[in-house]
Each structure stands twice: as structure tokens, then as C-alpha cells.
Design brief:
Layout lengths: L1 H24 L15 H30 L7 H14 L2 H11 L4 H4 L2 H13 L7 E3 L5 E3 L3 H25 L6 H19 L6 H22 L9 H10 L7 E7 L2 H8 L1 H19 L4 E4 L4 E6 L4 H21 L6 E7 L7 H26 L1
Antiparallel strand pairs: 1-2, 3-5, 3-6, 4-5
């Protein structure tokens, strides 16, 4: 029995190691695997949290294997059997919390309240070898549920809810429309958990959780590749994909933003200040247009908003509000450049989105020329 258990552990370690290497290899785009920028520190920290989650899964899976093989074994294996159960029950609800922190951070204190049942379960699981609260192991080395096993179930459900809310918050924050992976992820976890709760002899939960971890990491990587690392807005690749998904029946508004004389900003004040200008302007765009449409950084100093909610009246209001936000920004630091804006919208179902983008771009350059002419007249 012990030789078989050791062989299974070795195979399990090998499989997890291969899976981990594949996941780490594709966690970042090829260009960023060799040259990391300062703006990538958040994603690197999150990748480390994914590693911690994988380590926790390894420990829990080994504990699960131990408990399965030691069920009904001779009394000499009583202590390993108890330790395996204690580790499994204590650590398994912690995994969704780790994944939620990996993708959404640990700053949302309201969501982290869901972690309270998890830590209560950890404490009671550690005490269960002495007091049969969550589980107990009989003298014949047989596992049985404890008198307060429901606490473990509640902790697990709370952890899954925390993971779901964190995922939805991140998807909303970064305007990610791809929720199919999240649906598959929770489908796997819920199916495996319910099956094992109803029939403890069927060990499906960890197989489903392992698949869910892979899907979750895929979702995380997909999200990373859609976001501009500097500004947090959607990047050019996301912009192109979004344009291709717009249907002919859609009525859309396109707004183009261009930072005036941005090259001079970099030359005079340095690239760090240039980055500060871009992030500040992106924050203004997000503040004004986030609820109305999708916000993109489509070039070095160019931004775009595409909306199917804005109409002529609301667009004018948003346009003036954005100009006020920029003026407030410039009142704090006059070195921040002005921003030229152009927009166009289709009151009727459009035939070609590129024509609307072109019209908005031309209106932006017209706005820029008018402002330069006014400045010349004043000077």
C-alpha cells in the first residue's frame, strides 16, 4: 500500500509540475517575459499569488490521496489519516480566497469579510483531531463527518462567493465582456463540490478544482493581454476586436482623443512625467465615459471611447464635463498638455464602423486646428 501511495504521489508531483510550468510560461506575453516594466509589478505579484494557490492545491491533493488510501487501514496509520483530513478540511476553502486575491487584489475589505468563515473553519479543522467538530476518525481508521460539518460547507460556499464577486468586479473594472470562462469555472467547482458532499465516497471535487484553476488562469492571462499596462484602459488589440464585433444594426458613438504636443512633453520633462500625463488623462476619460462605453488606448498619445448609449444631448454633456476635468488637472500642473477631441455618431444603423471612426478622427483634427488658430490670434 505504501509503495503504491508513494508512486501516486510522484506521478501527482510530476503532473502538477508540468502544469505549473505551462501556466507560468503563458502567464505573460512573449515580450514581457524577458523585459519587465515597472507597470507590470501588479501582474507579477498576482502571478506569485497563483503560485501560492497551486502550492495549497498540491498539499490538499496529497492529503486527499493519503486519506483515501488510509481509510480502514491498520491502527498504525491513524495519525497520518487524522493529519491528512485536518489539512484537507483546513486548507481547501482557502484556495478560492487565494485565487480571488490573485486576480482582484486584497484591498476590498467588504469582500474579504467572506474569508471570516474560512478562517473559523481552519481553526475548527485543526481542533477536530481532539474534538470531533468538522470530522472524526474512528478507532477502526474510518472517516466520519463531525457534528459541525456544516461549518466547512458554509466556509466553502463563502469562499466561492468571494471568488465570484472578485472576478465580476475585475471584469467590470477592465470592461471585460468574456464571462464564458468564469461560467465554466464555477460550473466545474459547483458540480464537483455538490457531488462529493452528497456522496463522500465519490472523489470528484479536486479533479474539478484542478480544471477550474487552469480555466481561471486562462481567464487571468486573457484579461492581462487585453489591458494597456500603463493606463489600465483596454489596449489596441481589444479595440480591433471590439470593432469587428459591432453589428450593422448597432447605433454607436465614437470619440477620439489626442494629446497635443506630447513628444515635446517627453523631450522637455522626461518620459516618467509623460507617463504621468497619460495616466492622468486616461483617469479623466475613465471617470467621464466609463459607464457610457468602452475606453481604449489605441496609440502612444491617442485614446478612444466607443459607446452605444450616448446620444447627441448626453454626448455634449459628457464632452463638456471631460474638458472641465482636463482644466482641473491643468490647474494643478500647467505642464499637463491639452487634449483635442473629435466625435461622430450614427443616428441610423451604420453600414461601416470605419467611416464613423474616420469622421471622428477628422473632427478631432479640425478641433485641434481651430484651437491652434485661436492661440495664434491671442498671441
Amino acid at each position: 500500500m505504501s509503495i503504491t501511495l508513494i508512486n501516486m504521489q510522484k506521478r501527482g508531483f510530476y503532473a502538477v509540475n508540468v502544469l505549473f510550468r505551462i501556466m507560468c510560461r503563458y502567464s505573460c506575453p512573449p515580450d514581457s517575459r524577458t523585459n519587465y516594466k515597472k507597470s507590470d509589478t501588479v501582474s507579477l505579484s498576482n502571478t506569485r499569488l497563483f503560485k501560492y494557490a497551486i502550492c495549497t492545491i498540491i498539499v490538499v491533493m496529497i492529503s486527499e490521496i493519503i486519506t483515501v488510501f488510509l481509510e480502514g487501514a491498520p491502527a498504525i496509520y491513524f495519525i497520518p489519516h487524522v493529519i491528512g483530513n485536518a489539512l484537507g478540511f483546513a486548507l481547501s476553502p482557502l484556495i478560492p480566497i487565494q485565487l480571488g486575491c490573485a486576480i482582484g487584489g486584497c484591498r476590498n475589505k467588504k469582500l474579504l469579510l467572506f474569508a471570516a468563515p474560512v478562517f473559523l473553519n481552519m481553526l475548527l479543522s485543526i481542533l477536530s483531531p481532539f474534538f470531533p467538530i468538522i470530522f472524526r476518525v474512528t478507532d477502526t481508521n474510518e472517516y466520519m463527518r463531525g457534528s459541525a460539518f456544516i461549518i466547512y460547507v458554509i466556509a466553502y460556499i463563502a469562499a466561492l462567493i468571494c471568488l465570484l464577486l472578485q472576478s465580476l468586479n475585475v471584469a467590470r473594472k477592465y470592461q471585460n465582456d468574456n464571462r464564458s470562462i468564469l461560467g465554466m469555472l464555477f460550473g466545474f467547482v459547483v458540480f464537483g463540490t455538490i457531488t462529493q458532499v452528497i456522496s463522500p465516497e465519490i472523489h470528484t471535487s479536486w479533479l474539478c478544482i484542478s480544471f477550474a484553476l487552469v480555466l481561471y488562469f486562462m481567464y487571468y492571462c486573457d484579461l492581462q493581454h487585453q489591458i494597456d499596462a500603463l493606463t489600465g484602459l483596454l489596449n489596441r488589440s481589444s479595440y480591433n476586436k471590439y470593432l469587428s464585433r459591432i453589428k450593422e444594426s448597432d447605433q454607436v458613438c465614437v470619440i477620439i482623443f489626442d494629446v497635443d504636443n506630447f513628444k515635446n512633453i517627453n523631450d522637455c520633462y522626461g518620459h516618467p512625467f509623460g507617463d504621468y500625463c497619460l495616466t492622468s488623462i486616461a483617469a479623466c476619460i475613465r471617470k467621464v465615459f466609463f459607464k457610457a462605453g468602452h475606453c481604449f488606448r489605441i496609440g502612444g498619445d491617442e485614446f478612444c471611447v466607443i459607446s452605444n448609449k450616448l446620444r447627441k444631448g448626453s454626448l455634449e454633456k459628457a464632452y463638456r464635463r471631460f474638458l472641465r476635468e482636463i482644466e482641473i488637472l491643468r490647474s494643478k500642473d500647467s505642464r499637463i498638455p491639452v487634449v483635442s477631441i473629435g466625435y461622430a455618431f450614427s443616428e441610423k444603423p451604420l453600414n461601416d464602423i470605419s467611416s464613423i471612426v474616420f469622421e471622428a478622427d477628422q473632427n478631432m483634427y479640425h478641433f485641434k486646428r481651430q484651437r491652434k488658430e485661436k492661440q495664434k490670434m491671442i498671441s
